[in-house]
Design a protein that fits this description.
This protein is mostly helical and about 200 residues long. It folds into three domains: about 5-65, no CATH class; about 105-140, no CATH class; about 140-200, no CATH class. Helices cover about 45% and strands about 5% of the residues. A hairpin with a 3-residue loop joins strand 2 (about 170) and strand 3. Helix 3 crosses helix 4 (about 55-65) and helix 7 (about 145-155) crosses helix 8 (about 180-185). The longest helix has 20 residues, at about 25-45. The protein starts with a helix and ends in a 10-residue tail after the last strand. The model has no long low-confidence stretch (mean pLDDT about 90).
Length: about 200
């Protein structure tokens, strides 16, 4: 396509609001879909591509993709019950009902009902964890890396050694690597055993 023909073709692209008018959906999503469809067509034309589909169907396809929830139900056929990539394990009915009940209105997340003063959001799970583990205190975190960091910081402290089997020096979800997590705690990592076998004498 020559420069003149290319410029002429680009001028024939509809304005975003014109394409939005032909779409049926929430306004903010139709605007995004229309803008992306036009940008895709413009990039294809500038690249000299000639085999592209109709603009309106592409905008409708993008709108459908944008309208789908980010989290969707899937079938776990992996054989792994507690699967990190699939949301770990499904909540039992009692837990789902409790979440729904708390989410339907206001709750005492950080409020001491007896005194009316500000409370701690950790208190709700702290006593349950203490009862289950017989620990002096407890806190819930949202991933294993945070749990390792807190545990190593509490048990080893600054400069003290922490023994880890070489087979456990792995990278866990989110790109967290066990040696780096231990390093952030200030503890000294002591590697023992091999990558496939660690014995008590190690």
């Amino acid at each position: 396509m020559g420069a003149w023909h290319e410029a002429a073709a680009l001028r024939e692209l509809p304005a975003v609001h014109e394409l939005v008018a032909a779409l049926d959906g929430p306004h903010h999503l139709t605007v995004i879909a229309a803008r992306r469809a036009i940008e895709e067509r413009r990039a294809a034309m500038i690249a000299g591509e000639e085999d592209y589909g109709e603009l309106l169907p592409r905008a409708r396809e993008l709108l459908a993709m944008l309208s789908r929830p980010a989290l969707r139900r899937v079938l776990n056929a992996t054989g792994v019950i507690v699967h990190t990539n699939l949301g770990r394990a499904p909540l039992p009915a009692a837990a789902r009902d409790a979440v729904l009940d708390a989410a339907e209105g206001y709750c005492n997340l950080e409020l001491e009902l007896g005194s009316g003063t500000r409370g701690s959001r950790h208190a709700h799970v702290r006593e349950l964890l203490r009862e289950l583990t017989a620990a002096e205190d407890a806190i819930a975190v949202n991933n294993g890396a945070a749990a390792v960091l807190l545990a190593v910081s509490a048990l080893a402290g600054r400069g003290r050694g922490i023994v880890v089997s070489r087979g456990q020096l792995v990278e866990i979800g989110g790109g967290f690597r066990i040696p780096e997590v231990v390093e952030q705690s200030g503890a000294r990592l002591i590697e023992v055993g091999t990558t496939n076998r660690t014995r008590l004498r190690d």
